[in-house]
Design goal:
Helix content: 25-40%
Number of helices: 10
CATH architecture: Alpha-Beta Barrel
Order of helices and strands: HHEHEEHEHEHEHEHEHEH
């Protein structure tokens, strides 16, 4: 009998300690990281919805005045703040190499000129990324493959597919065994359903604009759809409630409001139920989430 109660006590203490590690803000990084598509979906739903521990999505890899768009140095800065989501843009070179670049042209964000699709990958080696303030950095144009390798264990890579290369990206994610650290963005449920049919192992996000949209999400798609995009600015509260009730993590962008210090604050997004803040101010947003979590707002 004594051995029985001792075993029960050990199990109880194990559960308590695991729960403490998961919710304690300073020990959050000790919890297990996703390793495959199922654990990634569960991780997001458990942490963000049930655990009420929001995260950011660093827009264009965390670009800011001193850090370039879609640059590895920007990603390192975001990862230093903890396990977060990092959004990047993917396009193809003339020889089909998948690289990170937002625009069709190299002009705005690199030292090179011309259209990306007219350049072979080896030609990009001379290009350096430029910050929004015009500073030339040591960053080069990263490939998607090296970014998938880098992100593992550091965060979640949210991939904005600019030219429809879903098949190529799905193949690369499988080759790199990156299903536990990559989410592919789709812009509507029709596309999400089509891509899920072709690549059922891919974890996706998509947009919903009205309550009837959720009726298009069947059980199979739901198992690979942890989050939904609700737009730029404060979303409709009814959509947030619906998404949360359906087990879908609400995402919204703070680009035109909290990022600029006007209109709605980061705390207002969080109070409303948004659990992923897409932002151009990753450091500020992470601090706001930490304050919001600690004050129990």
């Amino acid at each position: 009998m004594r051995k029985f109660w001792r075993a029960r006590l050990i199990n109880f203490l194990s559960v308590i300690s695991t729960t403490f590690l998961f919710f304690h803000p300073t020990l959050a990084e000790s919890r297990p990281k996703p390793h495959d598509q199922d654990s990634l979906v569960s991780f997001m739903r458990y942490q963000l919805l049930e655990g009420a521990k929001p995260m950011i999505s660093a827009h264009r890899a965390g670009v800011s005045g001193n850090y370039p768009e879609n640059g590895l140095s920007s990603m390192y800065r975001v990862a230093d703040g903890g396990f977060q989501m990092i959004e990047v843009d993917v396009r193809s070179t003339a020889d089909g190499k998948l690289v990170l670049l937002h625009d069709q042209s190299l002009d705005r964000t690199t030292t090179c000129r011309g259209r990306l699709k007219d350049r072979f990958y080896n030609e990009l080696q001379q290009c350096r990324l430029i910050t929004p303030r015009g500073t030339i950095t040591n960053d080069y144009v990263p490939t998607l493959r090296e970014t998938l390798q880098w992100i593992r264990g550091r965060g979640i890579l949210s991939i904005d597919v600019k030219e429809g290369q879903f098949d190529e990206i799905a193949e690369m994610i499988a080759e790199e065994q990156a299903h536990g650290s990559a989410i592919v963005i789709t812009y509507n449920l029709t596309d999400a359903k089509d891509i899920h049919r072709r690549h059922p192992d891919l974890v996706l996000s998509t947009s919903i604009r009205e309550s009837s949209d959720t009726s298009m999400i069947d059980t199979s798609l739901r198992s690979r759809l942890p989050a939904v995009w609700l737009g730029i600015g404060l979303p409709d509260q009814n959509l947030i409630r619906l998404a949360t009730r359906e087990g879908l993590v609400p995402m919204a962008a703070t680009f035109r409001t909290a990022d600029l210090g006007r209109g709605a604050s980061f705390a207002e997004f969080l109070d409303l139920g948004v659990r992923i803040l897409a932002t151009n101010r990753p450091t500020t947003a992470m601090k706001a989430i930490q304050n919001w979590t600690q004050t129990g707002s």
